[in-house]
Structure formats: C-alpha cells, structure tokens
Amino acid sequence: MELQRTLGLFDAYAIGLGAIIGAGIFVVTGVAANLAGPALLLSLIIGAAVSAFTAISFAELAMRIPKEGGGYEFAHELVSPFGGFLSGWMWILSNVLTGTAVAIGFASYLAIFVPLPVNVMAALACLGVMAVNLWGIRESTTFNDLLVVFKVAVLLIFVAIGIFLVHPENFAPFAPNGTLGVMQGAAIIFFAYAGFGRIAMISEEVIDPKRTVPMAIFLALITSTIIYMMVAGVSIGMVGSEALASSASPLSTAAALESPFLSKLVGLAALAATLSVLLTTLLGMSRVAFAMARNGDLPRTLTRLHPRTRTPIVAIVLFGGLMAIFCIFSSVLFAAALSNFGALVYYALVNASAIRMPRPTYPRIIPMIGLVTCLGLLIFLGLQAWLFGVLGLILVFVLFLTRDRWARPA
Q1: What confidence tier does 410 reach under pLDDT thresholds 50, 70, 90?
Q2: Contact, 101 vs 27, CB < 8 A?
Q3: Cα 228 to Cα 222: distance, rounded to the nearest angstrom
Q4: Straight-line distance from the first to the last Cα atom of the chain, in angstroms, rounded to the nearest whole number
Q5: Across residues 53-77, what is the average pLDDT?
C-alpha cells in the first residue's frame, strides 16, 4: 500500500492553485455577487483572511504529520478517532458536491461551444477526469500544471484588457444588502479558497513534504487571492454585480458585453480552470478515502493500488462515478451551499487539531481564530445547507457507530 514520491514544489503548488482558481472565480462569483453586490470585494478579503488562519494550521500540521489524507489524519491523531472519522467523511461528502458544482460550471462554459444538455456534459466531464486520475499521479499533475498555466495567463489578459473598460458607476451602491450580504457572500466565497487543503492530502506523494507542502499552501493562497481581487474588481467594473449574478458563466458574460473575442478566450480559460478543479477534487477525495480505508474507517478495498501507477483505483472509480450521478440531479447553488457546510466543519477540525498539537511553531491563537471564524461562517449559510448539513452529521455519527460491521475486515 505504498505510494510513490514523484511530485515537486511546482506540482504541489499547481494542485493548490488548480483547486482554488476555478469554480470560485468562474462560477460562484455570480452567486456571491447576488448576495454582496460590488461588496463582493470585501467578501473575497474576508474569505481570504479566514482561509489564511486555517492555511497556517494546515502548514504546521503538514510539517509534523506528513501523511496522505491531510485533515483526516491530523484529526485522527490529535483530536480523536471520531474526530478523524467526522473530518474524513465531511470532506468526502463536501467534495462529492464540490465536484458536482464544478462539473456543472465546466459544462455551462462548454455550452458556449457545444450545444448539449449541461447536466449530461457535466457527468461526462466527471468520467473524463476519472480516466485521467487512473492514468497516474505523475501524468495527472502534468496535465494539471498545463491547465493552471493556461488559465492564469488568460485571467491576466482579461484583467489587462478589462481594466480599460471599467465603469466606476457599477460600484454603486457598494453594499446593497448591507453587512449581512457581505458575510453571506464570504460564506459562499469560502468555497473558492477551500482548495488549498488538497495539497496536504497528497503528502506521501510529494518529495520532501515537510518543506514542500507548507510552502505550496502559502504560495497558492497568496497567488489566488491577488488574482481573485483583480478579476472580480474588473468584472464588476465592466458590467456591474447584477449582470454577474444573473449568469451561470459570469466572466464570459462580463467579457461578452465588451469584446466577443475576449468572451471566447475567457470561456476557454474557464474550461481549463474548472477542469483542473474537478481533477484535483477527485484526486483529493481518492487520497482521503485511501487514508481512511488504511485506518479501517472505510472498506479495505479502497486501499487497492494499481500495480503500475500506484494510484488508488477503486476509490477513484467510486467517487468519480458518484460525482457523475450527482451532476444529473443537482444545481450550482445547491451543491456550493452544501459543500460549504462540510468544508467548514472539516477546516474547523483541522484548526482543532492544530490547537491540540504539542509545542506548536506558531502562536496557538492562530488556530483558535481559524476555528472560531470557520464556525462563524457556518452561521451565514442558508437554511437548506444547515438542514442537509445536520442530516449529514447524523449520518456520519451512525456510520461511526456501525463501522466495525462494514469497514473493517472480519
């Protein structure tokens, strides 16, 4: 059950950047703009600040516990077996829905070029990234590296052109829904930053993980925050928050009102961006499932590795198939809200793990703030997210009580 250490700093950094810069800026921007208006810029800053405290916890934990599975392993070792079980399951439930939202976003942009039903294309995209993940970790990350370089280049072109097309009047009123709207936007936009945690999930496949993983986490978060702020500011200035809120592909909408060529280019970048997020979502889920199965918290069959590629083939096929099925029945808003609940619980447990770590490098107040802010953002999620989130927590508790009957070998 040994994995191969083949990934360097740029690969780990690109996995984080690929996971962060995708659905957040190309899809969920529209959802958050509907809640916060032009004050989406404040929502982005709040989301980045919350993420920064949690990112520091991740970085420190990754230096001390460089194991596959990230937050699951942290909570399992430092909080309790149930804390690890809850963390792993909430991450998996969250990311099945994250993958669904991202795949729908991918299909929405693909519809610009290919007139097929969005949900069908989204399901096919999930099966496509499943095939890439089965190809091997080295091949998957090389593909992701290329996607990341392309989408960042196009976003910079978008900013360079769009900054000359900004209309200042589009920023007024700045916060039409007040502080509540800004915080609701921040709770949704946290979905945009949550991808940095995937770097820690592949620690056993990274060369020198104690140094590489923390550095990749910080670089990915800093880079993505800068890009988010530039792109969101320019797109709001070009067409206004209402136009962004009414579109499933908000950046293409912004570009189309000024330049058809730029709209097509942004559409291609969005395809690359959402595809790379989808790729790393399945990558992270399969590694968490592998770690959980190795500890007996999921059926042992999920630890099965391909003899040549050393990838967890059963976990990849299982969760790639689940995402494809969910794509047929879900929507972006539904998936984003529910995945946020699971992600915030997961990140809260990561911070709780950092609080319990003996002899911490950073002041213990940092993970405490991270824990409080993650729990605080939960308050601003909608009733639907809370309803299904609580049902998810109950499900996890029942699974924990019965896991000896279905997870561990007889």
Answers
A1: very low
A2: yes
A3: 10
A4: 20
A5: 89
Torsions phi, psi of 356, nearest 5?
-85, -5
**Side-chain-side CA neighbours of residue 213 (13 Å):** 31
DSSP 203-240: GGGBSSHHHHHHHHHHHHHHHHHHHHHHHHHHHHHHH-
pLDDT-derived band at 379, boundaries 50, 70, 90: confident
pTM listed for this prediction: 0.84
**Domain coverage including residue 168:** 9-403
Structural contact between residues 40 and 229, judged by C-beta atoms closer than 8 angstroms: no
119 vs 131: CA distance, rounded Å: 19
Q: Residue 338 has what pLDDT? A: 66
Task: Judge whether 18 and 148 are in contact, CB under 8 Å.
Answer: yes
Q: Which residues of 59-86 are buried (b: 16+ CB within 10 A; e: fewer)?
A: bbbbebbbbbbbbbbbbbbbbeeebbbb
Strand partners, 225: none
- C-alpha 202/C-alpha 283 separation (Å) is 8
What pLDDT, on the 0 to 100 scale, is given for residue 330? 65
Evaluate whether residue 410 is within a structural domain.
Answer: no
Distance CA 199, CA 234 (A): 29
- The arithmetic mean of pLDDT across residues 70-88, rounded, is 92
The CATH number covering residue 157 comes to: 1.20.1740.10
| CB-based contact 35:337 (threshold 8 Å) | no
Distant-in-sequence, close-in-space partners of 385: CB < 8 Å, separation ≥ 6: 337, 338, 340, 341
State how far the Cα of 76 lies from the Cα of 260, in Å rounded to an integer: 51
Number of domains in the chain: 1
Tell which residue, 282, 288, 326, 28, has the closest CA to residue 134. Answer: 282
Beta carbons within 10 angstroms of residue 405's beta carbon = 8
pLDDT at 59 over 50: yes
